[in-house]
Amino acid sequence: MRRNRTTRARWSGATLALGAAAAVVLAPATAGAAPTSAADAQRLVTETAQQLTDLDEQVHQARLLVAEQQQVAAAAAQTAAQAHAAVAQYEPRLRAFAQSGWTSHSQSRVAAFLTSDSAADVVQQMTTLDLIASHTAGLLTEVAAAHSAAEEAQAQADAASAQATAALTELERQQADVQARVDAYEADFERLSAAEQAAVTARLAGPALAAPSTSAVIAAAPSEAVASILQAALAQVGKPYVWGSSGPAGFDCSGLTSFAYQTAGVSLPHSSRAQSRMGQEVPRAQLQPGDIVYFYSPVSHVGIYIGDGKMVHARTFGQPVAVTSVDQRGYAGARRIL
Question: What's the chain's average pLDDT?
Fold first, then answer.
């Protein structure tokens, strides 16, 4: 019974984790009328790009939750296997008792009476038989408890596996949905003039600035680890924005930051919201090169501060990685990871 209680306690937390890791449902795209002017078209494209940024982060969050569910399912399967192995360990002892004729306990008592030379001998033999019966009954109780624990663990494993599979299916559906919206957005963006495209991009993610000298940025880094992060990030300037990608051919915003930090041996989750909760909060006036800067509420965009009021980031859909001012629309805070 103690093993049964332990198993239930162990999996109560796992069940709560599964409940909290329900699949994220993407917010619907805002339906709007067809644009009636160039300015209206520009406004609608800007709004759509912001929606896509939010959806991008929702999918990243869903991906993290699916990974958690898969870990819970794997742990549940391992516990179930251990519980079944515990039951199997009783098999040799059960076979031994079966072969010893314990099932004929009443016949053994008669035989003890008939073959004993004295009353004391009868008592001694029957006491021994009682001890054997008691021990065997205790063994069967243990086996029953172990079997119950194994069944409970297997049920937990099956439920966790089913939920992880369902969440993965939902995530794949969401990714396909967002990709379709991205394709539609890029088609709308291409219909704008070059000046309108530049205005939309600047409004969303700041105007691109000339990238500073990498050697100068590295020289101002507070540590060698930060220097490697800055060098890696600046080396990606000009590469395309690719939704859901962490490189090396293209990046989205949290993909770029996680890629750059990996060069210093630091693993960041591929999620701007998750990154905005790591490390220590840093006031705008105390920013240092290498700090993660994040935008909007809820957080849906990140970049890497490189000093002198500038950051490098994968800006937005259809635009390459670039250096811009850190002081732009939606600035919400910064975190120091190193």
Answer: 77
* 8 A C-beta contact, residue 167 and residue 12: no
Question: What Å distances lie between residue 73 and 70, 109, 154, 164, 333, CA to CA?
Answer: 5, 52, 11, 7, 36
The span from the CA of 250 to the CA of 241, in Å, is 6
Is residue 94 predicted with pLDDT exceeding 70?
A: no
Which residue type does 231 have?
Answer: Q
Residue 300: φ, ψ to 5°: -145, 10
**pLDDT for 258:** 97
Task: Kindly report, residue by residue over 127-179, the tens digit of the pLDDT.
Answer: 655 655 666 666 667 767 777 777 887 888 788 788 777 777 777 777 777 77
Bridge partners (DSSP) of residue 303 are 293
CA torsion angle for 124, 129, 133, 136 (degrees, to 10)? 100
pLDDT higher than threshold 60 for residue 3 = no
For 99, residues 6+ apart whose C-beta sits below 8 A from its C-beta are none
Instruction: Identify whether the C-beta of residue 102 lies closer than 8 Å to the C-beta of residue 133.
Output: yes
pTM: 0.62
Among residues 254, 269, 279, 266, which one has the least CA distance to residue 225?
Answer: 266
Torsion region of 296: left, alpha or beta (phi above 0 gives left; psi -120 to 50 gives alpha): left
Amino acid identity of residue 161, one-letter, is S
Given the residues 84, 105, 147, 253, select the one marked as catalytic.
253
Q: Which domains does the chain have, with CATH numbers?
A: 2-192 (1.10.287), 206-336 (3.90.1720.10)
Let me know the angle formed at the C-alpha of 267 by 318 and 18, rounded to the nearest 5 degrees. Answer: 90
147 among known catalytic residues: no
33 vs 291, higher pLDDT: 291
Residues 234-248 pLDDT 10s: 999 999 998 888 989
Q: Helix crossing, 2-20 with 38-88: angle to 10°?
A: 170
